[in-house]
Structure formats: C-alpha cells, structure tokens
Amino acid sequence: MRFAVISDVHGNLPALNAVIEDAKKKSAECYIFVGDYCLNNPFPDACVTRIRELENKYVIRGNEERYLEHLVGKDQSTWTDGQMQISYWVYKSLSMENLKYLLSLPTQMHVAHKGISLYLSHSSADFIDDCEHKEWRTSKVAERYGDKFISPETLREDIHNYFDKDKKSQKIFHSLAEGIYIFGHTHIQWSYKSNDGKRILINPGSCGLPLDCVESGMPYTLLDISDNGAIGVEERRVPFDKENYIDLLLKSQQFANARVWTKIVAKELKTNREQITFFLKYVEEYATEIEDPQRPFSVSTWEQAFARCGERYRI
Fold it and tell me: CB-based burial of residue 304 (10 Å sphere; 0-12 exposed, 13-18 middle, 19+ buried)?
C-alpha cells in the first residue's frame, strides 16, 4: 500500500491540488491528512471540499480546527478586533457542511495495516514530548538558517544529526511502541527511523505553507508498506509557482478582510520561513509600550504595529 501523507494545507488549494496530482502519478492508493486545513490562505472551503471528495483517506484535525470550534455560537457583532480577522473570515467562508465535517474529525487515530501500527496526531508532542519543538519549530529554524535557503538534503542531514546525538530524543524514541508515528504542525518536512528500525517518525511538512527554509516545492511524503512488511519513506516537494500565487493571494477576499495577516503570510510564502510568530511578539511589545491592554489586539494597535515594521514584510 502506498500512502500520501499530507499536512498543514492552510487553505492553499493550488498547492493541495498539485500535491494530490503528484501523489496520483506516483500511484498513491490512500491519503493520510494530519490537520490544519484552513487559515492563512484564501481557499479554506474549497480545500475541505477537495479532501472530502477523496475516496480512500484517513483524516484528523489540527490546532487550527480548534480555533474555529471556539467561534461556534459566538456573537459575531463582537468580532471587531484586528488580530483575529483571519479566523473570523475563514469561519464565515466555510459552508456549514464543511465546518461540521472539520469539527467532527478525531484529534488522533490508530490505523493497523499489514500488522503495522500507524499512529496519527497533529503534533509530535503527543508522541515525543518536546523533542522536535524545542529545536525544530519554525522560529528556531528561521534563526538557525538566517536569510539563506537550504537544500532538502541539508535540512535532512541537520535534523538526523541532531536526533542521533540528542540523548533525550533517543530515550523517548525507544520508549515508543513499535510502529509509524505521523504528525505535522511545525511546517518542517522530516522523517527519522530509530536505530533498531522498529519506530519511524514522519512529518510531511506543510503542503500549503512550508516554513523550513527550503526554497522550492510544496512538501508531502509517500509511505510504502509492502505485503511482507517492508517500509519505505520518500519525501517529495512538488513544483509551485509562488510568484503567481502570491499575486493571487494579495487580490483575494482574504486580503480584503485580513490585510495585515495576509501580507505576512505572503512574506512567509516568499521566504519559506516563519514571520507570524515574530510579528505577534512585536505587536505585544508595541501594545505594552502604548499601554493598550486589549487582547486580542485592536484594529488600530494591530495596524499601527504593522505600519511601524511593515518594511520587513515587503514582497
């Protein structure tokens, strides 16, 4: 069986379509989706519909789906802040049928195939504590590589070298039950096999918003499990016209409704590295400076903070 493992679509329909078409060409028979289908890109409803149309699939929810769940039943007349504009727009853009589908998804799943266990969760923290997040979350990766792009091979080698030498990671890896552990969340593509080969970790990266400092392609991973139990993992990156897509993004309804957030996402797509986390930290510092206690941040504070540092997000 060949599985296409996909995560963190984040409303990027052209990227999702490109990855699915590549998986079909590579004879994928089943799809595994591990969360975050909306927010950040302008096609949330279409992305959910596309996933629902696929026949053979396992789908779980991510942290972005929790944000949408928190808006259910809330008074929309109070949705007047600047910080959450993107969430409000996505919530209003989803059909009721697709929203119900997202909120019905499980947070974790166990799949057995050919006697091999596949454990699905959105975040690796559910399996390996902070082994990934403490050094390989997106803000750390952006700081590690600075402004330069790296090759997939460099990223793979650096991650493998780190886990090979980190004693805590090795201890936790070997404490896991035998099987394959699949997750996303960090937007960084990697995989790792324990020394005894009985435990495999897979993060397919972000199909819709890669933040791993690798310049080209939208990532996903092919997982092969043969009849004799042999396991193969292939990390793939599908060609994608970022320039044309960013132009589309900045003309979208999302941009009209959440301009600051969308501009920062455009910069993330352009650079393939974290930007939002650093901006949120800056807004917090700015709000403290002007003694504005409102959280989520007001429209004026949100937009004024962006105006003060907007040059760094110029495309």
Answer: middle
